[in-house]
Amino acid sequence: MILVRNARAEPDAGDSAGDDGGAPRSPRHRRTIAVALALLILALAASWAYAHWREQRAQETARATAALDRLFESRLGIASTSGLGRLPFVSRANLIATEAALRRLCPHDQPAVRARGLAVLARSYTVIGDYPHAQALIDEAERLLREHGIDDPGVDAASASLLNLQARYDRAEVLASQALRPLQNARDAATRMRRLALQTELARAKWGLADDDGAMAMLESALADARALGPAARDSVAELLTLRGEWRTREYQLRAAERDLEQAIAMTERGNPLLADAARFQLVHTLLKNDLDLQARAQAEQLLAYRRRAFGERHPETGRAWVLASEAQYLCGDLSAAVQSAARARAIIVATYGEQHPEYAELLRQESQNDAVLGHGRAAIAKARAANTLLETTLGPTHERSLRAKYNLAIKLVFSGDASDTESFKQGVGMLEEVIRTGKETDIPMPLEKTKLALAFAEQPGEAAQQHAERLLIDGQIENRKYFPPHANIRLVSDFALAQLLVRRRRDAQADGLFAEVIAHIERGDHIRPTMHSVASKALLYRASYALSSCRKDQTLTLLGQQLAYCERHLGPGSDCAASTRVALSELEHHDYLPARFAEHVGGADPTRRWARRLADQLGYARRCVPGISDAGDQRPEPPADGGAKSG
Questions:
Q1: Who has greater pLDDT, 31 or 240?
Q2: Nearest-5° Cα angle at 497, 492 to 502
Q3: Residue 329 exposure: Cα atoms within 13 Å on the Cβ side
Q4: Contact 330, 369 (CB under 8 A)
Q5: What number of other Cβ atoms are within 10 A of residue 332's Cβ?
Q6: Is the separation of the CB atoms in 311 and 317 below 8 Å?
Q7: What's the pLDDT at 615?
Q8: Under a CB-based contact definition with an 8 Å cutoff, are residues 265 and 279 in contact?
Q9: For residue 460, what pLDDT is reported?
Q10: Which residues of 298-310 are buried (b: 16+ CB within 10 A; e: fewer)?
Q11: What is the mean pLDDT of residues 431-438?
Q12: Are residues 369 and 375 in contact, defined by beta-carbon separation less than 8 angstroms?
């Protein structure tokens, strides 16, 4: 369009001084205007064409992304751009078919969509333990993006996730940090959602590098960003709460961890039960760590029922739930149920994961605990060792699950092996010390491990070992009181072990006071493990023994009466403890101590009747009252066969 100046307007400074304003434009001037106009039209046309092409391209990308989402949702049960946590298990055959479909669905002229799909598929391969193929898919995705000069935070997050899974935390931290920098000021919701995944992987990497403060700060930042995104990020908030609950559990912030996990379950139980299921799985571990075994068992069995209903009887997630149920049942003292649950888990896990997957190692670890209680010491050690080796090979020696397996093996070597096998004992103690050292290096509390190390030394002869054990147990008391409530079994076991050690070191009065505290805590406790009832009975016997040696026979009989009632109530009227104590009470009404023939008469040759021998040892001639001698450990004359006459 040519604009013609109004002839009535004043001439501007560009006009010639003598021009009257009526002279026509030159041909060259008209040609210049025409060329400019043509260029402008061409530019507008090119701009329109580019915009139209971009719109078409965006529509093609959106269609390809939607098709990819449908593929992953139908075959893998996930959406390609969502999820910060664990993906569901699918079979290798399904993954191979999905990969082939992805390559047909996403052409090479859609590199971003194709790369994103390969990254999600890589995460799915990690679930079945095929880390090499997962890495190959990630490498292919990254190569595609480089060739086309594209950045994709979703691919970067998947790559960092794979590095974290393999305990390559330093590389994961560098990758996630670099990928996050250009996203700091992102405004659109899609990019902010992808940024959440990178923030989460960076937090995991920092946690793995023992930068607990940095990890928790990054996690809190991600949680704040997720909440700011509103309802669209509700599932992400729940997943981040689950991760925080897991970390707080490791730091022994157990009540705070429970609150996080319960909130995650409440947020997702109706809308996304799979996420609620993941939070409940972690909640069981948290409750077990806090010695809330009955609550943990109820949650574990609820989770198992959901997975059997949602996934079916043969799905590996159902197998994992059977393992968890076995652990809760074992700690509740229901060994029969624990063994049956482990057998159900084995059939599923071996068939789906095979015997080289971390989940198989978790099964072996639980089976070793069941075997140890059943008295199958060699089998327990063999399974514990296999679990430890497999996890160190697949996840690395400093991974949390590897450390847990190493602790389990150490306990079996120290307490479940042959007492004369000094090499196994030394190896177990060395492993406990290594786990504790790793905890110190990573700022993770290890109160349970320290207590078990003290118990190991407490069983050893010699003054040096007992002094070391006493120091460890006293230090353990301080740490246990910091992290655990009074009813916690580890506190009771630690205090009982210290009291036993004091008896061995002939500090009976001090031990008696500590035994009394242990009994009081067990009787008041709402969440006492069944094994603690045996501890209380033994503590009552120790107190009765000290009362007998201190010439307080009436108190001895009173304490034995309490022991009998306790054994009948918690271990059963026909239990070895109840039956043997009943006879001992009758004997002590007529004698000052139990005769040597007591153990043989009551227990006979039955190796399971240990209480008769225990009573004979604690209430026999060596512990009788000798007026004027307060130390029951003093030398005494040889005992007569009849147990002595009743004192007046």
A1: 240
A2: 125
A3: 20
A4: yes
A5: 18
A6: yes
A7: 85
A8: yes
A9: 80
A10: ebbbebbebbbee
A11: 93
A12: no
* Contact indicator for 491, 484 with CB cutoff of 8 Å: yes
416: which DSSP letter?
A: I
Round to whole Å and give the CA distance between 332 and 313. 24
CB 471 within 8 A of CB 461: no
> What dihedral angle (degrees, nearest 10) is formed by the CA atoms of 541, 543, 548, 550?
160
| Residue among 355, 365, 298 at smallest CA distance from 329 | 298
What is the distance, to the nearest Å, from the Cα of residue 527 to the centroid of all Cα atoms in its chain?
Answer: 21
| Cβ contacts of 349 within 8 Å, gap of 6 or more | 316, 319, 320, 323, 357, 359, 360, 363
What are 7's two structure tokens? Answer: 């002839």
pLDDT of residue 9: 41
> Under a CB-based contact definition with an 8 Å cutoff, are residues 115 and 103 in contact?
no
User: 98-133 pLDDT, tens per residue?
Assistant: 888 888 877 667 788 888 888 888 888 888 878 889
Nearest CA among 291, 334, 332 for reference residue 492: 291
Nearest of 348, 327, 351, 357 to residue 339 by alpha carbon: 327
Q: Which two tokens stand for residue 343?
A: 């057998």
Contact 501, 466 (CB under 8 A): yes
Query: How does pLDDT run across 607-647, given as a tens digit for each residue?
Result: 556 787 888 888 887 777 877 654 444 444 444 444 444 44
User: How far is the C-alpha of 39 from the C-alpha of 27, rounded, in Å?
Assistant: 19
Cα(485)–Cα(292) distance, rounded to whole angstroms?
Answer: 11
Encoded tokens for 434: 């290594």
Cα distances from 623 to residues 120, 547, 579, 601, in angstroms, run 71, 9, 22, 20
DSSP character at residue 412: I
Q: What is the pLDDT of residue 428?
A: 92
CB atoms within 10 A of CB 105: 17
Task: Give the mean pLDDT of 302-319.
Answer: 91
